[in-house]
Amino acid sequence: MTKKIFTVGFDIPGDDTENISFRSEQSLLDADIIVFEPSFVHEYSQSDYFKGKPKITESDSFDIVEDTSHWMSELKAAFDSGKTIFIFLPRLEEVFRYTGEKQFSGTGKNRATTNIVAPFNNYEVLPIRTSRIVPKSGREIRVAKDLRFLSNYWREFGKDSVYEVYLEGDFKDVILTTKAGDKVVGAIIEGPKGAMILLPPLRYDPEPLFTKSGKNWNTKGIAFGKRLTAILVEIDKTLRGNRGATPSPEWTKNSEYRLDTESDLENKIKDVTQQIEDLNSKRRELFIGLEREGGIRRLLYERGAQLEEAILDALRTMGFKAENFKESESEFDAIFSSEEGRFLGEAEGKDNKAINIDKLSQLERNIQEDFAREEVAEFAKGVLFGNAHRLSPLSERSEYFTQKCISGAQRLRVALVRTPDLFIVSKYLKEHDDPSFAKSCRAALLKAEGEIVQFPTAPFIENLEEEIELEQQASDKSQIATANAPMLEPSSGEGNA
Model-level pTM? Predict the structure, then answer.
């Protein structure tokens, strides 16, 4: 019978195995043999650094915890059910993730909110106990004892194996160590049914194994994959034989050899399994809803497409019909309309700078392109959405738009919107059915001509950082009054606007 082999985080050349994405919800119980390499942190978006280590974005922090929990449970279940699991030990990937908790400091207008982060690493996915994972690498690996069923594997692939960490902990069956012999880089963990084999990762050169196009495995690559899978199957067969149990022949599964209680238990297992699947489905729906509802927080820290999506969501909450636009060579971040009028918006996020005139020049060109469309009869009202200094806490951010950008906005009568201000009104409207307040917000957008939009103050403000934001609006208003004469100077390479 052909063995079904699943690989996660490691690709075996050829078509004899099924490669599973780390972000999949696939069960490992469908496989006979599992090859798992916990090298997955790069699949999650990173925003900036904390204590010298990358920090996973707030939305992906939730995902990485959920996915890690899923695979840890799957590995444990596969081990308990008798699967043979090969674990390659890659380099240690250390990051920080958001916990969802907040810490408050200060009082009144000086009160600030801090998002709590926690350390995280890729080895948290493994259901094994180690006292320490040490990030050291090398090629000199010593065989600690008779490799037994791993002899053929090591003879064939030992030359392609390198250690990228070593383990500290109580391992009863150590098989591979560093050259000095005192650091564990390979071990076997056997249970009543299953086995987990910890090995240094295979680091073969993939280039000679691909066709010239680089898209498909060549004959050499397929042969390499077949040798590897054949040895994995051989190891699995030996381990199962060593456990002393003979697999049930197919003929013993016929109805005349089965007990009534077996069928009864199987039906109960089927019912419970269905309940679990239904609950998991419900759980996924709730998680999707949770992520969607928290999406407006991207107005505080995002840029690019993620910021644009959050802006559109906020505009719809305010009662606008809003969408992005892409047609032929024209592409606009946001076109939105209501009874107050029709608007065209551009969005920009800056890591540690104010929004400059370049984005305003682009907005002006887009307004002209939009007006040139046959179905458009009037110029759209221009709106520039800015998320300046996006990686800094709100209380530490300075000006959102440069003086030159403000002067240009005055000439073009463009409304300037700080996306954290948009977050404030969107949060209130999502939590309260208040058409009158939404109408006032839309009117504020229409009224603003060459100035930062002053949205009406929500009936109450719960987020204490928002108090600081409202004070900063007054400061920005003062900045507008001192702007230079309303002349839009040409930006580099653009010519006169």
Answer: 0.52
